[in-house]
Amino acid sequence: MKRIFSGIMLVASLLHFSAQELYMPRNIKMAFEKGTRDTSGAPGKNYWQNKGVYNVEVKVDAATKIVSGKETIIYTNNSPDDLDELAIRFVNNLHKPQSPRSGFVSKDFLSSGLTIKSFIVNGEKYDINSDDWSTVEKVKLKSVIQSKTKTEVKIEWEYPLSVQSGREGQIDPETFYVAYSSPRISVYDDYNGWDMLPHSDRQEFYNDFNDYSFAITVPKNYVVWATGEFLNPEAVLQPEYLKRYKASLKSDQVMHIASEQEMKSGKVTRQNKWNVWKFKANHITDFCFALSNHYVWDAASVQLKSKRASVQAGYKAGAKDFEHYVDWMRYNLDWFSKNWPGVEYPYNVMTAIQGFADMEYPMMINDSSIPDNLQDARLTADHEIAHTYFPFYMGINETRYAFMDEGWATTLEYLIGIDENGEAAAKDFYKNFRVKKWISSPAAEQDQPLITMSTQVSGAGYGNNSYVKASLSYLALKDYLGDELFKKALHHYMDNWNGKHPVPWDYFNSMNTGSGKNLNWFFQNWFYTNNYIDLKVGGASQMNDLLTVNVVNTGGFAIPFDAILSYEDGTTEKIHFSPSVWEKDQKLTDLMIPIKKKVKSVQLDGDIFMDYTPEDNSKMF
């Protein structure tokens, strides 16, 4: 027993030592030195993260389009630091004319932003002028928040819903998607302190795992869909619709809880002037809600291993794709739970709202309608629901490292697409929609290293790093390790960081430890270089029963590929090579292929790993 244990420890220490070879920024190095991160890939012995318990009362005035509310936050400072300031984040200040943004917006996007009416910390009132606030602002505290203590923060506020709807706002004059709906305390973490990066509408989000209780006041005849458990359906729904809703929680079949006509007729909600809808969600990175007085309401549920999850959709009558959404999402939750990533859907509900964003939120998605292309529409839902795992199950810093969530969602979208549409159609979509624009363009911004912070890239550089190259790296690693070992390593990473905040080096180290392999050569190749995909047949010869093919890796990425042999008798043979052929030399490899008959030609085919210059991928004899 002692010898076996020593051997395991030796392998682990070798892996951990080698993991330090990858470049690491100074702030991340400091986290490892402090013991909040560990070279095994797991959180360190000194890991901590702060938390807020939010009790929010919010009112949406459908006539004035004003959202107003008050909240009480019990904030726990688990850090080793005393805090003499609080960073308050309000993403919707993106709509203020003076806020920094990544691109052009219309006049309908702009609004006056957040007005703070009252701000109290531990009973002390603060005079806050929020006119000059952007999406994140610091408040200097009168008394420090000591390490390992709790603080009570009370805020009253209001803001207008923008006319133009994107990730949030007015979908139509009587349908609103209310995301990032209240001020929150920004993340204070072990490698940057306060997260002060402004939201620009390109990079996405980074939030603490908080507990949220929301009481949402809306006019009668408005139905509310939200993150979390619906606490009081009896108080807001009329008996027939309450009955339908409750039946949907046990039904595999899609139920039409309310039609457009029923919504407009005043039959669905209690006929109080205002109704208060209550929802609760614990240990989650965000909370959002939507409301409408005319959207169709469909629902069903799906039995997972440990629970039955509710699946709901709200949409405009006649939206042909959204009529399928509940069935599609039932399939999503079951497939993702059983296949890839093979982790049970962690929540009790998933809701889709027809809007304009193609955007994910915990337990909700806001998708545009694509009624004339159901395959595309379904893949949009696949992608956004895949985000359940990355970034929500893992508290990923999307603002700095978008490839840690978008790359995985793109990969999961592709893998479930194979099952839904067949391998040929899934590959065709992936190549045309994801890979082609990147690989066919020689522009300098296409080849920036994946490890580059997402805030430092834009345009094609941001999109291709976050989605395309990241996804290809995960699929190449899957090919290299094989499905079983890849899933084992992936689960090790997810188990390590479920409910916590991983950075890329936690991913690298977790995959090393989880697979029992030193993968740093692979991570160096894919994440730290200006590589692209471009193979070339440098030469080929056949002698007796051996074909030798010299392959030059001009682009540099360690990709899998097939060698397709065409024989003189008219037959063909396809031989697969994993990225392992590049482990020792990432620029050149010689393929030694046994043959039993005369070869007429050899061609290299990367399939979804599309080649920049495919014309030099073949050799005739």
TrEMBL record:
Organism superkingdom: Bacteria
Signal sequence, start to end: none
Peptidase M1 membrane alanine aminopeptidase domain: residues covered: 368-526
InterPro entries: Peptidase_M1_dom, Peptidase_M4/M1_CTD_sf
Pfam families according to UniProt: Peptidase_M1
SUPFAM superfamilies xrefs: Metalloproteases ('zincins'), catalytic domain
Stated name of the protein: M1 family metallopeptidase
